[in-house]
Write a structure and sequence with these properties.
9-stranded mixed sheet, TIM Barrel, Cyclophilin, 603 residues
Length: 603
């Protein structure tokens, strides 16, 4: 049984929706159906099982029985018994525990799935809540304090320590491009007016639709008959302010509908929040179908792999309950959770029915080191100096070509404009100056990359700029703002309890990628031990061992001797040392021998 201590802004029971359009009843269901599918897959449920849809501000829930849960969708901050609760993981919850779901830095909705699915009465073949009609879910309304919900029983299993790649989640704002198909009502002039400028998301937004700020020329035809509506339709009322239809929209309408959002991007409509910006990008029907097929292949692959794992796990004797799993987890005495990235262990990927630990190896490039070419075969991401501390158009071009030749993801490595000090001196600039010089470096590399036909994958600050940003939220935000302006979504930042880089990047709509260091010592709080002090740099064998442990367990041993949780998705290798190539080779071999898959984020 689940008890609602605090309901949140609008928390409702939702599933995959109902098929009753012939009765004039909207399909409804989760506004972000991808979040519903992923959350259900993580706990071993059918794709359409009922869960809780959380909107803007989440609930506080007490579990009166052991449960297995997952939260997917917008990056809501959440805590289980006061400890950070991670997005995109299957987490066992013991009876008596309390889950608090807070707010999201971006996006609007998330889905909380419980293994077995919420057990509320079906109405017209669905458990989804229709707020306008007042049926489905729990009495056709949002949750209230004191409500109690049950769920169906499934065999208890201990989940694999796996989480989903951030690229699987539905994109969120503050800026979104939606692929659209034009209808016969889209004249050339109207199509241009709708697609050549961005529109803001107004405060008039609910599960029926989202009204956009900004106008387009609208012709009012009082003789126009009402026609069927579909979620994703872009209606144009007489005032010229477009309306995007969501799952609870009426089944018919009389406004012109010049555009329809392609099915592949409709889940993003459920993540639009007031203040976001939307741009419409016309595509062909063939391109829309191809994009949808590609997404479905990926989602169904993940669903099939997890379904097979749960099917096998349920047949194993002696599967652990949530309370047993909690007890074993607490047995790892003294481990700390990285609050910047949530709880749990190392990253993992589901592939071919198996779950593998997953890590990226990154190295710096274009800084004049003679070891770069020897390091490149062993890494999966390269951070290319782009004119601040090192690099020019020629070195950028050569670095991009070297990365491309080895199939390595190429990213930008901006630093202080300090060639004499190689970007390692502590300098102080006004925040707007930081944003300006980082943006200038990113644009310089983007221009060279465009000529080489390379798409940049990530941004990682360099040297002292990185070190200072890990402790200074304003500086971290200034750097991340330049990355957001450049359109590069992945942002590498220091993982660890003392770092603010990932939080500030996430607040600006970037996808944060926690970074750890195989060859650096760590302080008890998860920060890097200062250079120049004993234990700051690890020897070759120690660096390999630490890198493998970080990838498999999400742990390091601090200089004090205690285990510290540092959950990272990428490991940095310093490519300028005399043993750089040997360390890269041995670490790559050690990771693969330990069953770790080495791949760049999103690949």
């Amino acid at each position: 049984m689940l008890e609602v201590l605090r309901p949140g802004l609008q928390t409702t029971v939702q599933d995959a929706g109902r098929r009753a359009l012939a009765l004039g009843v909207p399909g409804g269901g989760a506004a972000d159906p991808v979040a519903l599918r992923l959350a259900n897959a993580l706990v071993g449920n059918p794709a359409g099982a009922a869960g809780l849809e959380v909107t803007l501000t989440g609930p506080t829930l007490r579990f009166h029985a052991d449960a297995l849960i997952a939260l997917c969708g917008a990056p809501f901050r959440a805590a289980l018994e006061g400890q950070p609760f991670p997005l995109g993981w299957a987490v066992p919850v013991p009876a008596g525990a309390t889950l608090e779901v807070g707010t999201a830095a971006r996006g609007l909705r998330a889905v909380l799935a419980l293994r077995g699915g919420l057990n509320v009465p079906e109405v017209l073949g669905s458990r989804a809540t229709d707020l306008r009609a007042g049926f489905g879910g729990l009495e056709g309304r949002p949750l209230q304090r004191g409500d109690r919900l049950g769920w169906s029983e499934l065999p208890r299993v201990t989940p694999r320590r796996a989480f989903l790649s951030p690229t699987l989640h539905t994109p969120t704002g503050p800026v979104l491009t939606l692929r659209v198909l034009s209808t016969p009502e889209a004249t050339p002039a109207l199509l241009a007016a709708l697609t050549e400028r961005p529109f803001g998301v107004s405060a008039q937004a609910d599960r029926m639709g989202v009204r956009l700020a900004g106008e387009a020329p609208a012709e009012h035809d009082p003789t126009r008959v009402s026609l069927p509506n579909v979620p994703g339709a872009v209606q144009l009322p007489p005032d010229g302010r477009p309306i995007l239809l969501l799952p609870d929209a009426g089944t018919h309408g009389g406004y012109p509908t010049p555009l329809v959002v392609a099915a592949v991007d409709r889940p993003a409509l459920g993540q639009l929040r007031p203040g976001d910006q939307v741009r419409f990008q016309p595509v062909t029907l063939k391109a829309a179908h191809a994009a949808l097929r590609a997404r479905e292949r990926t989602l169904r692959g993940v669903e099939a792999a997890l379904r097979q794992w749960y099917k096998t796990a349920a047949r194993r004797p002696g599967s652990l309950s949530a309370r047993d799993a909690e007890g074993r987890a607490r047995g790892a005495a003294g481990t700390r959770t990285d609050p910047a990235r949530g709880g749990g262990g190392a990253a993992a990927v589901v592939q071919g029915g198996m779950t593998f630990p997953l890590i990226d190896l990154n190295a710096d490039l274009g800084e004049g080191s003679p070891h770069e070419a020897a390091v490149m075969p062993f890494v999966t991401s390269a951070n290319i100096a782009c004119g601040g501390h090192a690099g020019d158009a020629s070195t950028m071009r050569e670095s991009l070509r070297l990365a491309t030749r080895h199939g390595v993801a190429a990213g930008a490595h901006p630093g202080f404009p300090d060639r004499e000090g190689f970007g390692r001196r502590e300098l102080h600039f006004a925040l707007e100056e930081v944003t300006a010089f980082v943006r200038e470096q990113l644009e310089a590399l983007k221009a060279v990359a465009a000529r080489e036909g390379v798409r940049l994958s990530h941004v990682k600050p360099h040297g002292m700029l990185y070190t200072m940003a890990a402790k200074d939220p304003a500086l971290a935000s200034a750097i991340a703002r330049a990355a957001a302006d450049s359109g590069i979504r992945l942002y590498f930042g220091l993982a660890g309890g003392a770092s603010v880089m990932l939080r500030e990047a996430e607040a600006l709509g970037l996808t944060p990628v926690g970074e750890a260091f195989a060859d650096r010592g760590y302080a008890p709080d998860g920060s890097l031990w200062p250079r120049g002090q004993a234990g700051a740099l690890l020897p070759h064998a120690g660096a390999v061992a630490q890198g493998v442990r970080l990838a498999r367990e999400g742990l390091v041993t601090a200089v004090s001797g205690e285990p510290v949780r540092v959950r990272a998705r990428t490991l940095c290798l310093h490519g300028d040392g005399p043993e750089a190539a040997e360390l890269a080779r041995d670490l790559r071999r050690g990771l693969e021998a330990a069953g770790v898959r080495v791949a760049a984020p999103g690949r």
